[in-house]
């Protein structure tokens, strides 16, 4: 964990965002995309107590639902491990916990896209 900040670095400047868009366009011919995101379940020992069942996923296995984002070079640029296994991927996205500065981008009028690998869905920062 102590070195996570050296390896997992999200795009924070306008220059970073523009470079990400350029990379996705050059490699995959997809305009305005800055990342691909998906969730995966990491099996854990079921917590004891009144909230233990919240960690049981749809396959009846105790897990954490972990959301990750990668760039066009397949490097992880954000990770969120705070959700119990019973939480659906789309709820994690709606809760805006992914380390994505959406409000800042919207305030500057930027339109960016994220590709969801699980549902063949594209999420955008604008409505």
Automatic annotation (TrEMBL):
GO terms for molecular function: metal ion binding. The keyword Metal-binding applies. Keywords: Metal-binding. Residues 37-96 form the DDE Tnp4 domain. Its cofactor is a divalent metal cation. This is DDE Tnp4 domain-containing protein. It comes from Acanthoscelides obtectus (Bean weevil).
């Amino acid at each position: 964990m102590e070195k996570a900040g050296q390896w997992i670095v999200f795009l924070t400047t306008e220059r970073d965002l523009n470079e990400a868009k350029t990379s996705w366009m050059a490699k995959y011919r997809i305009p305005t995309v800055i990342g691909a995101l998906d969730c995966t379940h990491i099996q854990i020992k079921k917590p004891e107590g009144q909230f233990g069942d919240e960690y049981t996923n749809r396959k009846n296995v105790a897990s954490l639902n972990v959301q990750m984002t990668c760039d066009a070079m397949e490097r992880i640029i954000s990770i969120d491990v705070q959700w119990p296994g019973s939480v659906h991927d789309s709820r994690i996205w709606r809760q805006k916990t992914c380390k994505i500065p959406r409000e800042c981008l919207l305030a500057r009028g930027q339109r960016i896209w994220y590709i969801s690998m699980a549902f063949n869905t594209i999420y955008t920062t604008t409505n």
